[in-house]
Structure formats: structure tokens, C-alpha cells
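ENTRY TYPE: paired fold submission
RECORD: A
CONTENT: sequence, then C-alpha cells
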Amino acid sequence: MSLIGPGLSLVLFYKVWRTSRRLPRHWQRTLSLTAASITVVTLALSAVFLNSDYTDDSLWTLGWGGRIGVVAISVIGLVGIFAALALKSRAFGRFSPWMAIPLDILAGLLIYLGVLWLSPQVYYTFYQMIFTDLPVQIVIKSPVDPDRLHQILIPVKGGSLADHLASIGFWAVLPFTIWQHANRRR
């Protein structure tokens, strides 16, 4: 059963790639592939989401306006990350594919991890706007927290909603980057 999700998600990604490869490059195409890449990874990790209980997550301490704000920040952040990844892939496209693709994937994952490292401060600042009694402080921890990185790389039942969503974004970098280079060679 665990192979059905990844298998179906790869078929979906292949279908999206086949239908979009003849279209001219522009921001709408990049945005649609971002959505497809995230969908692929979400389907592949669906068992984690279905078996996790997020009732203790801090998102539920917010009202509807706060929840919508957190979702909006997340969506804007993901779109911004994948736009930066598309620009980065365009720069790596000048090299031979054997060198460009691995370096591009590595650079993409490092960019994603950098944003992931800084993102708690963005969310904390938003929480400060909602809960005015929160103190002004830096909540960013050391750049490489091995426990959190492990939770993101290998999402497990019982993990936080933030870590599971970060895992989707992290693993979506791979199909997105490969797609960027697959279309360049045509």
C-alpha cells in the first residue's frame, strides 16, 4: 500500500509534464508546476497526514483570521521560494546537464533549508501582531537542527503540521528542479 501513493504521484507528475512541455515559459507555467510538484509529494506522503493528529498544533490556538493569515504567509512563501528556484534553475541551465542538475538540486535544497531556518521568525512576528503580549525576541535557532531536519526528511506519524508541510515543500524541490532542466533540453 505504501508504494501506491508515490507511484500514482509520479504518474500525475509525468502527465502534468507531458501536457505542459510544449507551452512557452512564463510565470503561470512555473506556478502550475509548483502546484503539481507539491501535489505529487502530498500524494506520496498521504499516509503520514491521514495517520497524524494535529489537534495540539499551535495553528488551532488562532481564530479564523489568524489561521487564514498563517495559510496566506505559507502560500506566499512557497510561491516565492519556487520562483527563486526557477530563476536559479535558469542560471544553472547554461552548464551541461550532468553538472547542472545535481548542482541545481543541491542549491535548491540549500535555499529551501535557508528559508526554512528563517521562517519561524516570520511566523512569530505574525503571532506578535495577533497576541500583543508576546515579547519581542529572536526565535531562530541554530541553522542546522538535526532533530528537526530528520523530522522533515522522514515525516512520521505524530509530527507537527509545520514539519509535515515543510517536508512536502522540501521534497517538491526535486521534481520541480528536474522538470526545469527536462524542458530546457528541448
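RECORD: B
CONTENT: sequence, then C-alpha cells
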Amino acid sequence: MTEVEIITALHRLDTELACRRKKERLRYYNAGEPIHHKQVMFHQSLKRNRWVLGGNRSGKTECGAAEVVWMARGTSPYRPNRKETNGWVVSLSREVQRDVAQAKVLDYLNPDWIANIVMVSGRSDDPRGGVIDYIAVKSVSGGISKISFKSCDQGREKFQGTSLDYVWFDEEPPEDIYKECRMRVLDRKGDIFGTMTPLKGLTFVYNKIWLNEDGDPEVECICMEWADNPYLDKDEVASLTATMSDEELKSRRYGKFAASKGLVYHEFDPKIHIIKPFDVPIEWYDNMSIDPGLNNPLSCHWYAVDGDGNVFVVAEHYEAGKDIGHHIKAIKSISESLGWYTDFCGRYSALIDSAAGQRTLASSKSVAELFLDGGISVNTKVNKDLFVGIARVKSYLKDSNGKPRIFVFENCVNLIREFKTYYWGEGDVPKKKDDHALDELRYYIMSRPEAAYVREKPKGIVEIDKERQIRRLRKK
């Protein structure tokens, strides 16, 4: 074979490989290097209401398109597959559908897998140039799946009546359409997933999804920014970053919600500060801290400190509209389950807001006295300096070396929610709203917790009794 023939053959081979790669794009999605780890994290999640909150060009739409095709084909490598599925891809408008979500789905669909395409406009033999109504896809199990395309500008009425296995929102939908789509997946125990850049401010997605104010265990958010996308050129990222304001960067690069006033604890990063629970050594156990409330929530957290002085928030009690007796019972129950230490009288110890030491006309005893009667010895001498306390909490979120020194177990959902919603108000003072957990966190941090191997360990009953006998002998 001559040199020309070899070059020609290699060119044909390269062309064939390129065609196959384009045709089988789903096969190469996050297979090999580089890996987009946040995309993989999204696909691995078994939650039924998953959202990617990402900046522009962070790779979020690729997630949704790949997930849709896997569901239609029944080939997801991470989740249980169904024989055939019926799902919706929801865009903001028909034009956005055609140019974004529809195009991405077609990218991942091998033409050999398509049984039929029905168009709203345009030709089915050239679907990219028109608007698709639905695509019939051959499932590997032998059935036929249906990927239908919807747009929010059609109105809520167009989203009624159908039972679905999944709905993918490409960008944030109106709340009424979101609610309607949740009804569509109810009877089939289907999935909702969304991929969006939060450009509309603090909308229902902020409350229902990001904050998860209802405590829905099926809701999960994955944050994705430019640095998470290994396919973006770093020089281009740096160049574009330099031209954008802080507010633009917040949403368009980092995929974060923006409000008119800034977050107090903007250092709080769920990727860093929220961790999965683990068995905490008993010697790390340090103290509880309580912000009392009756109609307002009573917040109590359990704090541990390791040998390096890192603080771990390991458990939470947060409840409103209950009396002190109920809270005492709940706190003692959680303490017992943790194996939390007690004093020589069998009482638990905790910090509490100094207001708990005051008696009111409605009660002959203060809140602190009621806690003591219930077996919890509370210390009301806490430092409530707001601004010094905030500064100290910030130093734990990120110290002078940029490292975190506080970590919150993911089951402490109300503390996490408050970190995300604590905003500055007028006069450079935080808004007095949803701050019960953060108040008692501040009391604890202001107590200057010491490393586990530095502070004095709680004394046992025998040791305390021995010291008492020695004191008696000395007095005689």
C-alpha cells in the first residue's frame, strides 16, 4: 500500500469513527476522561425531585437531556429502569425548546433508536429545524417510550390529564405549571428533575427546592458552576469573569439565588459545610445550645469538637407551638440516643438565651427553672453580642487560611435552611426572621469551644463524690 493510500485509508477511518461517535454520543457521556463529576452526582441521586442549580454553560442541560434518553431507552446505569416510559420535556417557549432542550435530546438519541417523530412544525426528516411534538423511542426491553415536548407559554391547562414517568424542566417554570406536573407523576411514582440558572430572584424554587421549607425527603439540589465543567477553557472563564459584576457572577457563574440584600453568612457553602453523619467519638461531645420558643420554634443543637478544634453540629431539635415539657422530653430523648454525657445528678447541660432566666406574670418559674426541673441544667450567661458573634461564626465557616472549622450534619435541616436565608436588612442589621438556630449557634461559638484533647473531660460520679469527701475532710 502506497503512502497516499495509507493516508486516504486513515482519513476514511477517522471520518467513520467521528460519525460513530456522533451517532453514539450517549455511550461516551462521562465515560473516560475528563469526567464532569457534578453531572455524575446528579444521575446517581435516587431522589424523585432532583434539581441542578447551575450557571450558564456549567453543563446542567446536558444532565437533563442524557437523563431523558436513558429513561426512554431503559438504560440508566444508576437508577432502576422501566420497560417503557412516558415523559415530558418542559421549556419556557417553543423557540427555546427547539434551540436548547430539543437539540440536546436529539444529540443523545441515536437515529436507529427513533421509531417515529411527530412535529408541531417543520419536517420529521429534519427535526432540528422545526418544533417537535413527541418522539417515539425504542426501549431496549422491546417497548416504545414517548418523549413529549411542552412549553410554559402554552399555559397550565395544556399540562393536565396525563400520567407520566418523569418531567424535565429545562429552566425554571411558573409555579402553577410545576404544581400541575407534580400531579402528573403522582400515580406512577415518577420523577421531577430540573436544570436551571436562578435568574428570577427568590421565587418558589428558592423556597420549595433550594430551602426545602416543607422538609420533603425526596428533594435534592446539586449546585454546578463553571469550574465544575472540565470542558470549559480556563482562560475564557477568567476573561469572562473579569467583565461581570458580583451579582451577575452569583447567578450566571455560580448558579446561586440573588436577593436585594446580601446573605449574612455568604461563606456558607453546602458542598463544604454540610456532611453526612458519622459515629462521633464520645470524647468529642461538648455542649448543647438552646434558643427557647413557644409559639416560635424552640431550636436546640448538639455540638462536638474534635482534637483540632473543628466544630460538628451533630443533631437537631426544632419545633414550634409546643410547651416546655414537650421540648424537655424531646431533647432528653435525642441526648439518650446519642449517649450524651450527664452530670453527677444525671442532668444534661446546655447553653440558653439569657431571656430564659426571666420570670413572667404567666408563670411562677422561669424557663431556665423549668428546664432544670426537667433534668436539663441550662446556663443563661451567654454572650449575645450580635456583631461580634456573627464575625466569630464567619471565622469558623472560613478561617484566616480559607479553611472551614465548622461542619453540619445533613440531618440538621433547619440550621442549614437558616444559613441560606439569613439576610442583612436596613441599617446593616440582619433581618429578624428565621434565625432561631443561628442565634443558639452563635451562643455556642461565643463560648469559645476548645479542642477535645485540650478541654477538661466531664467528671464521673465517683470522681465528683471523691472530691466532695475531700472538701468535707478539709473543713473538719
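NOTES ON RECORD B: The chain is about 35% helix and 20% strand. The chain has a mean pLDDT of 89.
STATUS: closed
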